[in-house]
Amino acid sequence: MSSRSINYTTSPLLASRTPVWRSKFIVAAIALGFAGLAGRATYIQVIANAFFQKQGEVRFARTLELPANRGRILDRNGLILASSVPAPSIWAIPEDIERDPAQLTELARLLEMPLAELEKRLEDEDKTFVWLKRQVDDTVAQEIMALGIKGVYQRKEYRRQYPEGEAAAHVVGFTNVEDIGQEGVELAFNKQLAGHNGSRRVIKDRLGRVVEDVGEQISPVDGPDLQLSIDSKVQFFAYQKLHDAVQQFKAKAGSVVVLDVVTGEVLALANYPSYVPAKRRNLTGEQLRNRALTDTFEPGSVMKPFTIGLALETGRVTPQTIIDTGPGKFTITGATISDSHPNGVLTVEGVIQKSSNIGTAKIALRMQPREMWELFSSAGFGQKPQISFPGAVSGRLRPYKTWRPIEQATMSYGYGLSASLFQMARSYTVFSNEGKIIPVTMLKNSEPAIGVRVLSQTTAGQVRKMLQLAAGPGGTGQKAQTIGYSVGGKSGTAYKQIGKGYGSAGNRKYRGWFVGMAPIEQPRIIVGVMIDEPSAGQYYGGAVAAPVFSEVVQQTLRMMGVSPDMAVKPQIVSKAEEESF
Questions:
Q1: Which of 135, 259, 273, 443 has a CA between 20 and 30 Å from the CA of residue 204?
Q2: Residue 397: half-sphere exposure toward Cβ, Cα within 13 Å
């Protein structure tokens, strides 16, 4: 029997005859399926591949930012005030984290956070990215990576360091965790310091590992260095002396400004209380506020040289004109002006030397309000200082048309208007720079500043001589005298407003000022000092602010290499001689 007949007889299924069309249909269906797959593959890979490539890139392609190194901030001598150092940041893919209790406990310890907080950040396993801690120390980052926890990674970032700490905090300011300036020079020059970040296009696997570079890499452009006018040594010394004075007189706060009267450079700008820029937890507005620029006050007697200068300039008086200040009381339209003690008959020079409110008011009333307003405006009062620094304010100077006689009188000795310490220091460049007010800058500048004339050279010299008398024997600012250098300046003590007034006699608060220059014949620096709310029994500007002026002047001129022009012994001043206005 043949094999064919045996197969048919032994298998009933094979014995049945299959229609030919069925076989052809199956073969055709298989061929059609392959054709469909080939067509779909052609469509995906050739015709409409852009969509699918984009979806692939969304899942696996990443643009890595290559951070630029922020520019350094330097003082005038090239010493570093702020710089960036590498500081790795720790991040994780929560869904990949191995939940080993011992490892997580050690990770929390290295991150300096409670274990519960770490677990809270990792609790959502659908997250593919979460910061664990930004900008940790390099040694900490190495210890974390040594734990070998799956799903924990690090990224290179930069952190700012501030070597001068709290002494220069209000000058340099600080950046946030994204390296964006928030205060001070860091904020004012943020775009210049930041540079330009680069980028790198890569393909990553699901574990975040780079497996391929795609496209061209753009290299970062580091920010340029910025050199300030600040002298870090002068800054530190000014801050220390200010700190000591605030502590000694149990004051609320204080500020110091040091200007170079030749170039207009700010050599120091210090405030207390201060803060450490790298440690900003629990900071308050009291610490952050740059009081020298942002706080305005009624300046008190520091304004008197401008009133006298205008009277000299317009020929109303000469330095030897006699002014009768009487028994220490002077009434104008029902309001009484007082001196701290009777001065009797004074010359105009004596009005400044003894800081007589009455003498200044009587001289002021010889002039028109418009004249005084124009001079005050020309000296920068009521105008925002043109300086590249955040927070500078304009103060207050009311239009002269609204002044009543009593207001004109009180403005002549510093009440009824307001100014910042920075404005006051700059205004005194009129007297130190032969009658011209000069622009000021926070950036290093070796060229002499070009000033705008406010008073004549002769008048400026006359006022400067009066300021020397005010800081000398018989004056109200004797404690401003400095060994080796002649000085001139004016003390001031102003009531602080409490509500709509100045408080009762036993409940008044004060600010003590001293603004002056040295050496007196050829001034090189101006120093302004403000002590806010001294409460240790002394509050006159000549007692609380003048000593800081003296020490800062002496140290600054020595650091600048200015030769001493005289030998002056410190004066012992009795309490009765200290002038309040």
A1: 135
A2: 25
- pTM of the entire predicted model: 0.82
Where along the chain do its domains lie?
Answer: 19-61, 63-227, 232-275+290-570
Amino acid identity, residue 62?
A: R
The span from the CA of 49 to the CA of 19, in Å, is: 44
Print the SS3 string covering 47-65. HCHHHHHHHHHHHHEEEEE
Helical H runs in 289-428?
Answer: 291-294, 304-313, 348-354, 357-364, 369-378, 405-412, 421-427
The CA angle 79-85-87, to the nearest 5 degrees, is 160
DSSP SS3 for 261: coil
The answer to whether the Cα torsion of 99, 100, 101, 104 is positive or negative is negative
Provide the pLDDT for residue 354: 93
Q: 512: which DSSP letter?
A: E
At 347, the amino acid letter reads: T
Domain 63-227 fold is Penicillin-binding protein 2a (Domain 2) (3.90.1310)
> 3-state SS string over 394-461?
CCECCCHHHCCHHHHHHHHCCCCCEECHHHHHHHCHHHHCCCEECCCECECCCCCCCCEECCCHHHHH
* Third-level CATH fold of 232-275+290-570: Beta-lactamase (3.40.710)
Q: To which H or E segment does residue 12 belong?
A: helix 12-15
Alpha-carbon distance values, 47 to 39, 43, 354, 396 (Å) = 10, 5, 95, 72
What is the C-alpha separation between 381 and 54, in angstroms, rounded? 61
User: What is the rounded CA–CA span in Å between residue 289 and residue 285?
Assistant: 6
Tokens of 29: 């269906």
Residue 581: which of 370, 347, 343, 345 has the closest Cα? 343
Q: Are strands 226-227 and 73-74 parallel, antiparallel or unpaired?
A: parallel
Distance separating alpha carbons of residues 534 and 494, to the nearest angstrom: 12
Strands 253-260 and 525-532: antiparallel
3-state SS record for 196-213:
ECEEEEEEECCCCCEEEE
- Residues 540 and 547 sit within 8 Å (Cβ to Cβ): no
Q: Please give the backbone phi and psi of residue 270, each rounded to the nearest 5 degrees, phi first.
A: -125, 145
- Determine how β-strand 510-518 pairs with β-strand 488-495: antiparallel
Tokens of 364: 């002021």
- For 393-443, what is each residue's pLDDT tens digit? 999 999 999 999 999 999 999 999 999 999 999 999 999 999 999 999 999
| pLDDT band of 565, cuts 50, 70, 90 | confident
Mean pLDDT of 312-325: 96
CB distance 301 to 413 below 8 Å: yes
Known catalytic membership, residue 11 = no
How many Cα atoms are found within 13 Å in the side-chain-facing hemisphere of 257?
A: 29
Query: And the tokens for 118?
Result: 């770490």
Q: How far is CA 338 from CA 108, 123, 427, in A?
A: 67, 72, 26
